[in-house]
Amino acid sequence: MRVALLVLIFVAAAIAFTDVEKWTTFKITHNKVYKNIKEHNHRFEIFKKNLIRIKEQNHKYETGKSTYNFGITKFADLTAEEFLSRFKSGRSPINTLSKPKNTANNDEAKGNIFDTSDDLPDQYDWTRAGAVTPIRDDPDCSACTAESVVAAVESAEFIKTNNLVQRSPKQLEDCIPFTPDDCWVCLDKDLTYSRDVGIMSDDDYPWKFEDQDCQFDNINVTTPLIHISDWRYVTEGDEKELQRTVYLEGPVVVAIDVTIDFQLYVDGEYLYVFLFV
């Protein structure tokens, strides 16, 4: 009886130690520092609950009941409610009925992409062609639509000129007044500004993690601004059109209506995605 009891104690201790190891690695990897021991312990309890979520979701994936995996992300010390509150950026949920109608959203403006054959590659990586700038991390999603638009413009500029220039999402964030519109409207505003005003280089209008007034009139521009001529939306749910657009025209802007599952997502086919250019 004494031996059995000791074995059970050792097994329980090993399980607990595994959680502690994961917690320690998590804090080191993501530079997590908490204000006091109470906050530290509170976050550890949340972390352990998220480990259970990860295990349950990955079991669904392994048994064919889900198409994506969970893992320990930098958000693993947050509750689902905290994650949604912090990272949905204050904007309304995406509403497909509010998608703006612009002059390029018609069959004529779509050009020749529908005149091609179905002989398209299953995949095409524009990063290998040198058309994609490094990934930007927007910690609180305050400039998510601006960064998405700028990334697409950077790629379009490269495809047209063979010159990859990092452009300024900070310019769009500062110079377009924030409103709690949904993502369709915010993207439309960013695209309209990019067409009518143009986007400076990131060197001329660098990123700062602070609120500031628009500096457009105060900057000595060293790199010419880039303007887009227009834009259009990919038909929702039409993967063939998306395939043709990516291959024949270039990278597209993607908006994701964030759910709690996105907090711990690491790989796989994540559903509920809205696509537009």
TrEMBL record:
Q: Which residues form the Peptidase C1A papain C-terminal domain?
A: 120-277
Keywords of the record:
Signal
Every Cathepsin propeptide inhibitor domain range: 23-83
What Gene3D superfamilies does the database record attribute to this sequence? Cysteine proteinases
- Quote the InterPro entries the UniProt record gives: Papain-like_cys_pep_sf, Peptidase_C1A, Peptidase_C1A_C, Peptidase_C1A_papain-like, Prot_inhib_I29
- The signal peptide, as residue positions, is 1-16
Molecular-function GO term, any one: cysteine-type peptidase activity
| A Pfam family that the UniProt record links to this protein | Inhibitor_I29
Listed under GO biological process in this entry are: proteolysis
> Which family is this sequence assigned to?
Belongs to the peptidase C1 family.
Recorded protein name is Uncharacterized protein
Q: From which source organism is this entry?
A: Diabrotica balteata
